[in-house]
């Protein structure tokens, strides 16, 4: 049986980093940064005041009544400050040449033509020098990341109107099974609801990809082949039809094309397929909902992160709050929730591949190595995030 | 000076939970769940097998050669199992009436008309009872939350084709300032880049709202009034023009309409405005990028969460890895990053409202109470997330 680690390594070997494109900041939220962003200008771009008040020459004077020789709102280039006078300045306005300190408006009588200054400032008070925050060309934003609002804020403030991001992986999804019906259907005997048509596109979107199509087909080889050929994608994912049964259509359709099928030492998600479909990487997973999520997180998410030029999802650690059994010889993926700082199985039922309710309760997946047969309360376990 | 806590309470008093709408699962990712989702049918809907293999009457026999009287793929309703025979079953297929255990295919010679069974199963082996996972009407998904892919997976698997979600808050954004220019512009003396036009719509989207428009206007009262009147919104946010200066246009335009302006005891984000604009809640924040982000997280995010029927963002705790100074009498919001398990200021410059680079470095904001004048290494500090 192939180990989960080997299987993921094989999967990663099938994909390559995708190309780069420039997008305006307004459509960059959630995209993968490809190149550092550098400041287009000094920030602040000029000497400025951090307070509303009066710009003065600090070596000139003392508290008392002063002539206001100019009024400097933000956005204009002021004349030099006349000797023996002060200039009214608004937060963010350029400092007049010659002025080197600001008296906050709270320390004055707020005069317009003349102002009574109650407290005289030291040189540099409330003045920000040009380039104090950033110099032109400084890196504002770097390192592989999915862009957050605060990253876009830094880019915009530094004057970059667009950013280089990695193209989104285009992912095609194929669901097989004569027995699956859309949620909302009245089920006939033997039929079940199709969860994968909902789950896989949503997972693809959460992890930074674009789902280019979802096909749901019955159990014939030709339907599988036609559906795969109709998807223009960087990565293909199938759900259902991969185990050892006589009607495992994905397997029967793809084995002749050289796609590998076999057991992977993980629970859930043991029967899997992996390979290339006409040159496009393809991951074939069992059809039940918990297997779909577990296989996506373990196998597909790292592939998508590689395509997006991002590091593989981090596996952290947590301490188990209760004990549970693990399947012999298979890595276990257990949906867990937090009780205080410890994790416990999300539902009483454990990691069985059919436990629908555990998905909605889960805050993370615990990852237990294949050679562990039982988790004891207080044991440290691996912890994998459900979202990036 | 109004405390940050009082200010947030005033802000929350201005908003109410928004209405509810049903959306199909395919467009529910990231929406706020409004009502529990219940199972539309038992899951599994019928007695089924969890393995490919042969369904048997466990009390009938022993290893040996058996007649295969039926072939049961997934998706059909099988006939009862004839006495003295077995039926070939595929994972997920209904169990024939009368059969109560499954011999996995690995324990047989995989025969089609007749099969050699090597190991005889106990009653119930590899059989899943109808409703073992969920009963019709059981709650699959409940509790206020922003819907994740795994939540949609549970809904779909339980047969719910759509979900009740809270309507997205429609948020209008107004940026003021004669001095602001779009990123990418060549700056004239006195001009700065407009970051808020990028930052605020992206924050609104991250926190589950919909930005209905961004207006950027110069410093005239009429332009502010006209711009606000052009935005059809549940919540209005302005950036810039709120401090004590002569040209603080948002303040001068809105004070006559009863909007409160004054200092709030927080750093950054001290000068603020809050009230109603023709009945619509309005939050007025200073224009610089770090103040915009801090005010959004402290004031606007809780308002949006209230509208979305979600609890206010949690404030956790962390341990400071280094010490830093805090402003007297004001709550401090310090962009921080993690060094191991401890937090340190995201950049050397601290929490000054102009520190563009700190936003991109930040992994969270530390929150320091107003009565703390200095954080020491090892102190416990409040910790606020940058994203929901």
Automatic annotation (TrEMBL), chains A, B:
Q: Which residues form the MoaB/Mog domain?
A: 172-306
- Protein keywords: Magnesium, Metal-binding, Molybdenum, Molybdenum cofactor biosynthesis, Transferase
Q: Does the keyword Cytoplasm apply?
A: no
Q: Does the keyword Methyltransferase apply?
A: no
Under which main EC class is this enzyme filed?
A: transferase
- Pathway(s): Cofactor biosynthesis; molybdopterin biosynthesis
Question: Cofactors per UniProt?
Answer: Mg(2+)
Question: From what superkingdom does this record's organism come?
Answer: Bacteria
By its UniProt entry, which SUPFAM superfamilies does this protein fall under?
MoeA C-terminal domain-like, MoeA N-terminal region -like, Molybdenum cofactor biosynthesis proteins
In the record, the note on similarity to other proteins reads: Belongs to the MoeA family.
InterPro entries noted in UniProt: MoaB/Mog-like_dom_sf, MoaB/Mog_dom, MoeA-like, MoeA_C_domain_IV, MoeA_C_domain_IV_sf, MoeA_linker/N, MoeA_linker/N_sf
Instruction: List the catalysed reactions.
Output: adenylyl-molybdopterin + molybdate = Mo-molybdopterin + AMP + H(+)
Enzyme Commission numbers on file: 2.10.1.1
Put simply, this protein is called: Molybdopterin molybdenumtransferase
Specify the species.
Demequina zhanjiangensis
Q: What does this protein do?
A: Catalyzes the insertion of molybdate into adenylated molybdopterin with the concomitant release of AMP.
């Amino acid at each position: 049986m192939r180990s989960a680690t080997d299987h993921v390594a094989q999967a990663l070997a099938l994909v390559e980093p995708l190309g780069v494109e420039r997008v305006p900041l307004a459509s960059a939220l959630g995209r993968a940064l490809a190149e550092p962003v550098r400041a287009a200008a000094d920030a602040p771009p000029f000497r400025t005041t951090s307070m509303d008040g009066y710009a003065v020459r600090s070596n000139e004077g003392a508290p008392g009544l002063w002539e206001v020789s100019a009024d400097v709102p933000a956005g204009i280039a002021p004349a030099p400050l006349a000797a023996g006078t002060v200039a009214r300045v608004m937060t963010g306005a350029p400092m007049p040449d010659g002025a080197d300190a600001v008296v906050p408006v709270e320390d004055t009588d707020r005069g317009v033509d003349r102002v009574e200054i109650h407290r005289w400032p030291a040189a540099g008070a409330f003045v920000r020098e040009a380039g104090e925050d950033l110099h032109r060309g400084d890196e504002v934003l770097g390192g592989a990341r999915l862009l957050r609002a605060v990253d876009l804020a830094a880019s915009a403030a530094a004057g970059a109107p667009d950013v280089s991001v990695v193209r989104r992986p285009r992912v095609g999804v194929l669901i097989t099974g004569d027995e699956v019906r859309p949620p909302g259907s009245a089920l006939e005997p033997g039929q079940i609801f199709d969860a994968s048509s909902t789950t896989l596109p949503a997972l693809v979107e959460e992890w930074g990809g674009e789902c280019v199509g979802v096909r749901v087909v019955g159990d014939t080889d030709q339907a599988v082949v036609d559906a795969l050929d109709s998807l223009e994608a960087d990565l293909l994912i199938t759900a259902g039809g991969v185990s050892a049964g006589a009607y495992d259509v994905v397997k029967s359709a793809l084995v002749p094309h050289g796609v590998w099928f076999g057991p992977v030492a993980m629970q859930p998600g043991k029967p899997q397929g992996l390979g290339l479909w006409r040159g496009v990487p393809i991951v074939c997973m069992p059809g039940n909902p918990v297997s779909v999520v577990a296989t996506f997180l373990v196998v597909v998410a790292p592939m998508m992160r590689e395509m997006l030029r991002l590091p593989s999802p981090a596996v952290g650690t947590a301490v188990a709050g209760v004990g549970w059994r693990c399947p012999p010889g298979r890595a276990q993926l257990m949906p867990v929730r937090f009780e205080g700082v410890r994790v416990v199985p999300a539902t009483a039922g454990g990691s069985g591949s059919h436990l629908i309710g555990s998905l909605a309760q889960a805050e993370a997946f615990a990852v237990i190595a294949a050679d562990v047969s039982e988790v004891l309360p207080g044991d440290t376990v691996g912890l994998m995030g459900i979202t990036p």
